[in-house]
Amino acid sequence: MKLEMKDQPGQLVAALKPISAVGGNIIAVIHQREATTPAEALDVQIVLELPEGRLERLLELLRDQGIDVVRIGEERLLYECTLIVIGHLMHTDLSDTVNQIDKTGSAEVTELSMVMPAIDSPSSARITIRSTTRTEMKRAIRILRAVAKQKELLIIEPLEDA
To answer: Which residues, 6+ apart, have CB-to-CB distance to 31 below 8 Å?
Structure first.
């Protein structure tokens, strides 16, 4: 869910309270103060779970607080990590490597670009993985490491935490 709200103290709390009031469970909140809209409002993204039939009541409570709901249910993969994989990617079934991550249901390979210098030379691929949570990202990277070890591929990981 993506919300727009006034940049003033207490607005974020005012947006979170109705979620609790309708029995919702907050999974993640992304709140960047510098990201303002043309109307000088802040964008806030909230990943949440709601009991069935409670969405309309939540929307009503948010509107009562002066909070605009811009989008519902579009973006579920909020965390992103890009890695480089080097080795005989085509000979070791690149699609299987991608499927190992995708089949988790909580992480996906969303971008892939590959360079193959020659048929018998190692190739390199830039792989972007997106996931629902940081924990799921770590799980996806563990899966990629295990597959890489099995297929004798080298992974170059980012320096920052996924």
So the answer is: 12, 42, 44, 45
